[in-house]
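Please check this.
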Amino acid sequence: MERILGLHHITAIAGDARRNQDFYTKVLGLRLVKKTVNFDDPGTYHFYFGNETGAPGTILTFFPWENIGAGRTGTGMATEIGYSVPAGSLEFWKERFTRAGVRHGEISRRLGEQYLSFQDPDGLNINLIVSGTEDNRAPWTTDEISAQYAIRGFHSITLTLRSIKPTATILTEIFGYHLSQQEGDRSRYVTDAVESASIVDLVEVPSGSAGYNAAGTNHHVAFRVKDDTILMEFREKIVKKGLQITPKIDRDYFFSLYFREPGGVLFELATDNPGFTRDEPLNELGSHLKLPKQYESSRARIEAVLPKLD
């Protein structure tokens, strides 16, 4: 277990809190696992969407900064989120997106897997992918989206880079990934430490323009470790590579380290412990506004500033 256990969560930026919550819960059928605020900007929500428990490898989080404006995908950035869905479900999703007015592509194939690309209301690029290996994770379901079609959790994350070699070195020499497949300018790196949320695709675009972080772009990618003891062991490995990395940070639901990998993408390492039920029972996850303890005394003022939700 002293390994990177695939993806923990991915954090992106949105421009409208209510629209963001509605899309991910009502259109995609994910569970709002936690409703809290940005640690550095308590006037902004921090939403966590995932499966029933918010299991690592299922959690997409958002900073919905109102009226932030559109970002731009490009090099030095995570540019595509891959969600795992069951075989035979893509036609269901294509029809659902058409009815809901969601921008989407055609069902296609890449690296031997079927996928359907779409964009959320802010233009965030997401793919629904029928994994080449069986995904037995239990999904969150709704009245409209049964387990036959529901999203299981992450399949992969795609990083777009001017050169993939420095990033690939981090993945292979520190994180324990290995090169699995290549197709065109895309190289797939996989860890065998876990069965799902185990893939990082690196796309090399030597003359690509740098991305710009705002609405519709990914802020950072978090990789999973078992606990904070192992977290600090990885910190030592990263320091020995000559990279700058933060001290351990308590994010209430996990402990974290942050560093910028050589290609420019902000990486986080995050622990399984203590989890999302530390301040809400399982059946009430996401039902209450939970504040970091340093902001609890300012709850009334914060609630007055935050956008109103359903």
About this structure: The two ends are 41 Å apart (CA to CA). The longest strand covers residues 77-85. The chain has five helices and 16 strands.
